[in-house]
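for the recovery benchmark. tokens below, seq after
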């Protein structure tokens, strides 16, 4: 059951100190070209989307891997079944990852509490979230210097940047035999200001080794 007080205690305990002076959080090198600053700028929101073949959550976890490896705290809200092994394979430091299981009515409350103290918050809002909740959370993230990685459909969030998995192909099966080993994706990035011009990047997400590699 979602307990706001416990979430607040967690956010207070991991609240950034000196690290909050660094306005740019590092990302894994294969992802740097997708962001106009080469990293995640504090106070911004990045929407991670995907087509019918999925991959949005994997993309969000891959973006969080760089900050968590550098010592930042990350949290996940609104994801019912998070694959911990897959997240670790993508580079996420599980010792610095909090998973908050908040039912749909509480997603905005949980996210608002977390941005007060957590560096990167991955949130999967319900379909068509209330615009007032989106505006409030975006303003709070800007004020606190948190990064929101929003796993949602186009139009669900007025994000600063958008990264969308447009193509996704799994490899490893041959004539119905074998097992899935790696997924090759095409990610298209767009956004505001210097990021208006779309950027395309081919990635293994994950590669056969489980991590993120430029294709």
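predicted aa per position
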């Amino acid at each position: 059951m979602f307990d706001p007080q416990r979430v607040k205690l967690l956010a207070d305990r991991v609240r950034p100190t000196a690290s909050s002076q660094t306005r740019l959080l590092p990302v894994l090198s294969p992802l740097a070209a997708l962001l106009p600053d080469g990293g995640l700028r504090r106070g911004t929101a990045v929407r991670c989307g995907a087509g019918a073949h999925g991959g949005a959550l994997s993309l969000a976890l891959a973006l969080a891997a760089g900050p968590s490896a550098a010592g930042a705290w990350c949290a996940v809200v609104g994801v019912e079944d998070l694959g911990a092994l897959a997240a670790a394979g993508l580079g996420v430091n599980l010792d610095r990852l909090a998973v908050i299981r908040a039912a749909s009515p509480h997603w905005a409350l949980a996210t608002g509490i977390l941005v007060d103290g957590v560096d990167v918050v991955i949130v999967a809002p319900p379909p068509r979230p209330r615009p007032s909740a989106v505006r409030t959370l975006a303003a709070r993230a800007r004020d606190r210097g948190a990064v929101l990685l929003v796993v949602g459909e186009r139009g669900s969030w007025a994000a600063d940047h958008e990264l969308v998995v447009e193509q996704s192909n799994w490899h490893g099966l041959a004539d119905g035999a074998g097992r899935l080993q790696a997924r090759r994706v095409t990610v298209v990035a767009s956004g505001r200001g210097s990021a208006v011009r779309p950027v395309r990047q081919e990635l293994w997400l994950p590669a056969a080794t489980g991590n993120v590699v430029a294709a």
